[in-house]
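Input record (Table S2, row 220):
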Amino acid sequence: MTSQESHDPPASLVRCMRQLFAEGLTTGTSGNCSLRLTDAMLITPTGIHPSELTPESMVATDFAGNARGGRFMASSEWPMHASIYRARADVDAIVHCHSRYATALACSRREIPAFHYMVAVAGGDSIRCAPYATFGSVELGRSVTDALRDRSACLMANHGQISVGPDLESALELARRVEELAAQYHACLAIGAPALLTVAEMDEVLEKISGYGQPRRLTA
Ligand SMILES: [Zn+2]
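Output record (zinc ion complex):
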């Protein structure tokens, strides 16, 4: 977590959801985000529009779904968030949304291949598409956690996208990058089959990123 996020986790989640909405990455009440707490998580509530969210409406729950007080119900996607936190000690924040182009690709059950070197921003030479499972299910949690192995983002078949990181700011920035890459790849598919980078070319990019000392962060 950033120092601002650890100072006030509920307010950081409100800001994140409002930012997603303001940037057009979510509409209505879709999308959710969370922060890791000690042996638990703080997650956005279900069914509340970003404009009506307050820090008090955030829900603290353990990884088995037992809420720790509060008046609101956790996002229906809490099993997916819990599954990721259990499997990934490197993840302290998660952002999930149904952004337009990422969702369009996910509905075609297409991954984003190495059509552009920036695909490496998610940690590898592709951004996978997790196999379909019903929203809010434990199966979806497993499917997404598996698609995120060695990665910090993936698409979710017939659903949307998810980005993870050491803090909300990084996860939100990655969600933006994934949406931009999805839009660019969509445009490439409209022209015809894009030329893909080779494994060796992507390895060189991934090597260069890790050389920055900030793995999975790409600013070039
Ligand atoms: Zn969703």
